[in-house]
Design goal:
Helix content: 25-40%
Largest sheet: 7 strands, mixed
Structural class: alpha/beta
Strand order of the largest sheet: 2-3-6-8-7-9-10
Bound molecules: zinc ion
Strand content: 5-15%
Distance between the termini: 57 Å
Length: 422
C-alpha cells in the first residue's frame, strides 16, 4: 500500500466506542469454558475487524503501542492481515479438561495456540482471528549449565543436554486474554467494580470497560508470559511423571544483567538445571517466566527502593527490607498470584513433584487451584550472592518457605547489605 494512502486513512476520523452504532452489533459470541473451541467461539481482538470485535483491547500486550507508532510513521499498513501459513505449534498441547472449565483458566485463551486449526473455517471466510499463544523449539546456552557440567552435577545425554552444553526445550509464548467475570471472581469482587477500577486506574484507557457491558473479554496492555519445557510437553499432564517446576517473576537486573542484590538469576538457573536433570531421568521440567518486573511495581520503583534501603539510618538490613518497598510503592508486593496457575492448567499440570519457590503466595495459589505439590525446593545457600542475604533473610523471616534457621530482631538487623559507595 502507498504511504500516502496510509496517512489519509490515519487522519480521516475517530470513532468513539460509546457511539451508538458500535453497541450490540451482531458479533461472534464468546461462551467462555464451552466444551469445544467451536462452541466457545473465536476471540476477535484485531483492530482491523471493528465490526466483529468481541473483545476489549488488542493483541501484543504493551507492544500494541509500538505498533501504533509504527503505523503513525507510515511504515506499517494498519490493515495488514497475518499470513499464518507454517506458524502452527511444534508440539501439541492439550486439549485438557481444564480448558473447558470456565473457572480453571480465566487469564489466557487455551484455544489461542491453535486458532489456525480450530477456527480455520472462520479465518478462511475472512475473519481476522490471531493466535495468542505460540509454541516453538529452542536450544538454550547458559554459562551456569556449562558450569554444572564442569562440576559434574549435570551430564550430557545427547538429547536434552548436548555435549557442548546446549539444552533442548519447547518454548511457549502466551499473551494475556482476560475473561473479566472470571478474573473478578478470583479477586473476590464484582465484575462491575473490576471494570470501573481498570478503567479509572489506566487513565480511562479502554472506555468499553464501562460502555460495553456485552463484551466480557479484555486483552490488557501488559507483558506476555513464556513457558520453557524440558522433555515431552505431554508428560506435564501425567501426574505419574516427575515434574520439576519454577514459576519465576521477571527481574531484569538479575536475570539478564547479573546484579547481585537479589537471588533471581541464581534461583532461575538452578531451576533450569534441575528441570533439565529431571527430564534426563524420564521426568519433565517446566520454567514459567512471568513479566512482573520488580514485584509488578516496575523497575523505576525498584531502583528507588534500592536507594532508600541503602541510605536509611543503620544501613540496608533484612529487618527493614519490606518496609522500604512499602514506603516508596505503597505496598510490599503488587504481584498477587491468583492468575499465575492458569498457565499450569493450560499445560494440564495436576501434580508438581518439585516446586522451586519459597513464596507462600505462589504455593497457596497453586495448591488452592487444585494442583498437588509434593516437595518445595528453596535456593541452595551457596548460590545466594552476599548482597542478596538481606533479601533472603527478610523473606525467610516473613514466612517464605525454608528448611533453615529463621532470624528475628537483632539477627535481622545484623544482616547488612553493601553500602551505595562500596
Ligand atoms: Zn531480583
Amino acid at each position: 500500500m502507498e504511504k500516502d494512502n496510509l496517512k489519509f486513512e490515519r487522519a480521516s476520523h475517530v470513532i468513539l466506542t460509546s457511539h451508538k452504532n458500535q453497541i450490540y452489533k451482531e458479533i461472534p459470541s464468546v461462551n467462555w469454558g464451552a466444551k469445544t473451541a467451536k462452541e466457545r467461539g473465536p476471540i476477535v481482538a484485531t483492530i482491523s475487524e471493528k465490526d466483529n470485535r468481541n473483545a476489549i483491547g488488542t493483541h501484543s500486550g504493551s507492544y500494541t503501542v509500538y505498533r501504533a507508532l509504527s503505523i503513525a510513521k507510515g511504515e506499517f499498513p494498519a490493515d495488514h492481515k497475518s499470513d499464518l501459513h507454517n506458524t502452527e505449534a511444534t508440539a501439541q498441547i492439550g486439549p485438557y479438561p481444564s480448558w473447558t472449565d470456565p473457572e480453571k483458566i480465566v487469564s489466557i485463551d487455551p484455544w489461542g495456540g491453535e486458532v489456525q486449526k480450530v477456527f480455520k473455517e472462520e479465518i478462511d471466510k475472512g475473519l481476522d482471528v490471531r493466535p495468542t499463544i505460540a509454541v516453538t523449539q529452542a536450544q538454550l546456552q547458559l554459562p551456569e549449565i556449562k558450569e554444572a557440567m564442569r562440576e559434574g552435577r549435570l551430564k550430557a545425554d545427547g538429547k536434552i543436554v548436548k555435549e557442548n552444553g546446549d539444552v533442548a526445550v519447547t518454548k511457549i509464548a502466551l499473551e494475556p486474554v482476560w475473561f473479566l467475570p472470571g478474573i473478578a471472581k478470583r479477586l473476590n469482587i464484582s465484575e462491575g467494580e473490576l471494570r470501573k477500577i481498570l478503567f479509572n486506574e489506566t487513565g480511562g484507557m479502554f472506555p468499553e470497560l464501562v460502555t460495553r457491558p456485552d463484551l466480557h473479554v479484555l486483552l490488557p496492555p501488559i507483558g506476555s508470559t513464556t513457558a520453557y519445557i524440558f522433555g515431552n510437553p505431554a508428560d506435564l499432564a501425567n501426574p505419574e511423571v516427575e515434574l520439576s517446576c519454577r514459576v519465576h517473576d521477571e527481574c531484569n537486573g538479575s536475570d539478564v544483567f547479573g546484579s547481585d542484590i537479589c537471588t533471581c538469576r541464581p534461583y532461575l538457573t538452578y531451576g533450569i538445571e534441575h528441570a533439565a536433570a529431571t527430564a534426563q531421568k524420564g521426568g519433565v521440567g517446566l520454567i514459567v517466566y512471568f513479566r512482573k518486573e520488580g514485584r509488578a511495581l516496575g523497575e523505576v520503583t525498584k531502583f528507588l527502593v534500592y536507594n532508600a534501603r541503602k541510605r536509611q539510618v543503620g544501613g540496608d538490613s533484612a529487618l527493614n527490607y519490606f518496609k522500604r518497598t512499602e514506603c516508596v510503592a505503597g505496598v510490599e508486593d503488587a504481584r498477587f498470584q491468583e492468575l499465575m496457575p492458569d498457565i499450569l492448567h493450560y499445560l494440564g499440570v495436576q501434580k508438581i513433584h518439585n516446586l522451586h519457590s519459597m513464596s507462600n503466595m505462589k504455593y497457596d495459589a497453586i495448591t488452592g487451584s487444585g494442583i498437588e505439590v509434593v516437595n518445595r525446593i528453596s535456593i541452595p545457600k551457596e548460590l545466594i550472592p552476599a548482597d542478596a542475604q538481606v533479601e533472603i533473610e527478610a523473606k525467610k523471616a516473613a514466612g517464605y518457605f525454608t528448611e533453615e534457621e529463621i532470624k528475628d530482631g537483632d539477627g535481622l538487623q545484623g544482616v547488612q547489605g553493601r553500602k551505595l559507595d562500596e
